[in-house]
Specification:
The chain has 404 residues and is an alpha/beta fold. The chain contains 14 helices and 15 strands. The strands form 4 sheets. It has an 8-stranded mixed β-sheet, with helices on both faces. The chain has a 3-stranded antiparallel β-sheet with strand order 11-15-14. It binds pyridoxal-5'-phosphate (PLP).
Length: 404
Amino acid sequence: MTTQVSFQIAPASRMANVSYAIRDLAVVADQVAKQGHKILYLNIGDPCTYDFQTPPHMIEAATKAMRDGFNGYGDSLGEHSAVEAIRARAERRGFQGIRGVMVGFGSGEVIDHCLTALINPGDNVLTPCPDYPLYGAVLGKISAEPNPYFLTEENGWQPDLDDIAARINSRTKAILLINPNNPTGAIYSKETLEGIAELARRNNLLILADEIYDSLVLDEEQKHISIAALAPDVPVITFNGLSKAYLVPGWRIGWAVATGPEGALDDYLEAVYKLLRARLSAPHPFMYAIAPALNGPQDHLIEVRNKLRRRRDITAEWAARTPRVSLTAPHGAFYAFPKLDIPEDDKVFVTELVQQKYVLCVHGSGFGQRPGTHHMRIVYLPPEDVLRQAYDRISEFMAERYRD
Ligand SMILES: Cc1ncc(COP(=O)(O)O)c(C=O)c1O
């Protein structure tokens, strides 16, 4: 006879610190979709969901690697050809003093290991607010103390350097910046980057620079500058990957490049490498698409940026003509973070928006925002007709709701 027990498996208490707003709201959308409604998804930064196609030569390189038998584990830090291509690209973008290259399951995995190897419980990393929620989730998992600094909407969403300076304390280990930014679409100025580098110098801090959108700069007058190129004397870990600009988020290929003064990063990098060795390797055959992607034709990027520019403009035009919506124009990536002049919580707003008009965006509070402000994050990857339909529905929702 089997014993009847009622199992109760409790999660670790640190999991109370972990949330991921982007996927959380998708659960609400799933319920709405199950009722038979067709949802317009403006919530996930996956270009392959829309009309963007992976460059064929990358597919050829990955499938050739499979046919050639690269189906076992690969090198833990990254296959030689991949590491060399990443290093060469970084050098073309002005990086000097490269101390290490690490390839992982998307940049997300490398970010996780780089934070885990850095932080003791109670330490903190200065993280932007608003922020891409992966960072908060990983920092929560490793029991870091939250230490957000504000991005300033009135100043093109540039980081508030005084706010960063005021928040540095004895447990601060690093400053994180996301440039081009998710969720605001901002590109950081040279002055901002110089200011951040100077704070790192004065306070002996590591800089973590997430540059996964560095090829998706939409306006000619805006130039992306890598902080690693600007401040070769400061230890910097720069994250990047194939997911966004090379249109293969499902291949899970990302990397980090470590730069800085000789010797400064040795012990730390060895700790990161230990974690990378423990998980064996990134997806092996897909690593063989890194060199063809970075060194091969870049023509697809012209089309991607042209499409995104038009979609960004449609988004900005809608925001400009819609009462209660104001948008600091995004210049890079494929996100907009308009401010909402609404009385209720923005999570209530986006939840009822998907329930009533079947348009899915993510609430600003899921990314963090200045107290008392409300926003929503829009992913403007969908084709123009879908975007226009979505914006008409949001306008209709707001007109019915606020009657002004
Ligand atoms: C700023 C930022 N960093 C990192 C990632 C993770 O990308 P991946 O793990 O696919 O390289 C994303 C994904 O949306 C992102 O927006």
